[in-house]
Amino acid sequence: MARTTCIRSADWVVAWDAKSGRHKYLRGADVVFSGDTIVHVGGRYVGAVDREIDGAKLMVMPGLINVHTHCASMPVFKGVREELGNPRFYMSALYDGWNLFYTEMDDRRWSAQYAYCEMLLSGTTTVVDMCYPFPGWIDAIGASGIRGYVSPLYQSARWQTENGYRLDYVWSDDKGAGDFKKAMDLIDQAERHNSGRLLGLVSPMAVDTCTAELIRDSLAEARRRKRPYQLHAGEAMMEFLEVTRRYGTTQIQWLAEHDLLGPDVIIGHGIFLDHHSWLHWSTRDDVRLLAEAGSSVSHCPVVFSRYGITLEDFGAYQKAGVNMTLGTDTHPHNLLEEMRAAATFGRVAAENMFALKTADIFHAATVNAAKALGRDDIGALAPGKKADIVLVNLDDPSMQPVYDPIRCLIYTAADRAVRDVFVDGEQVVENRSLKTLDFALAAREVSRAQRSVMEKVPSRDHAKRTAEQVAPLTLPVERA
Ligand SMILES: [Zn+2]
Fold it and tell me: Is this prediction's pTM over 0.90?
């Protein structure tokens, strides 16, 4: 018999309004879930309940959906990558930084666990985790309690630079095809996990690192499996220039010409499209093509803003009809902070504070994300939907004074106010503590992993530099 939980008389509830197809605030409402499903959102619930939670001084909201992460590789970059751009690669750290600081296979599990901790503690209940496969991945994400899209990355070419100013592509079509097959086997394995919370997402790495054939076969396979699909495009200047040189056209126009867009396609980042001000490209078609295809963009503003790069602009994409979603890509895996950055950088890029509303950002992190993943049972609070629920503590000083709780949460409090989190009706965070994972242990292991990565930097660098030479500390260090 499923247990029934009632959050009684919540001060604020972010409830789903089916008529308008938008969220709305509901005051003084009960939210009830039984097993993994919401059964009631509204006035006083009179049915029997097994557990009652006092909703006074709480906002009840749907769990957030992070559509773009690389959990196994990003935590060791913390404190390193924020100022690690390459001036000769239009400031991107993708090409050489990645090769110098990659996480060893055996440590990736800890890195992923650290990221799952950060996400759950900041109210994320569903994650798209795009990783190069590592041992123990499915066990780790399964045990975390998060709703996970296991998205193994694969590609036909890898980036390489021998001098720090020329980007080369080392091609191996056979490896791409072989890793694609292994990725599908791993998805099968994930979907058999006894939690029932894991699904697959098909994710060839990027337009510039995959052959046309691999991209085409991947999308066909996603459609055969009825699973979502994501491809990086418009992530970097170097990639835009490479693709226009290789195909004579932009990434998005090339995808459109080959019938490789659609409502089931998520474009990772989508920043350097033909209209971006850094490019001065002659066309203005990319955003319109994405909108006409009904495709989504997973927007990760924080990591790019550190390099002085931003998407131009969230409001314009949305107005054109692109389904805008959000991701963290890297650390911190805190979608609330990402929502804040999406709102403020969206206005800066548009030079217009009315370019978007906070409600648009909240929809991006919930129902737009659900739509991108092809589902209507997450990202909203209504009977019949999954019990993925976040309880926000309005009593936390960081939330006060509470005139508008979503604004207080996004622009100020962030994870400090996330008190309890439920996924599939199971409590994974209680009073700001994780019930499923040991954050302190994951942090210790990631610290050890980072030390070992730092020691290996000279042997991985083309100029044999130390980690501190590649990524100098904020201040000079003196021994006392
Ligand atoms: Zn990415």
Answer: yes
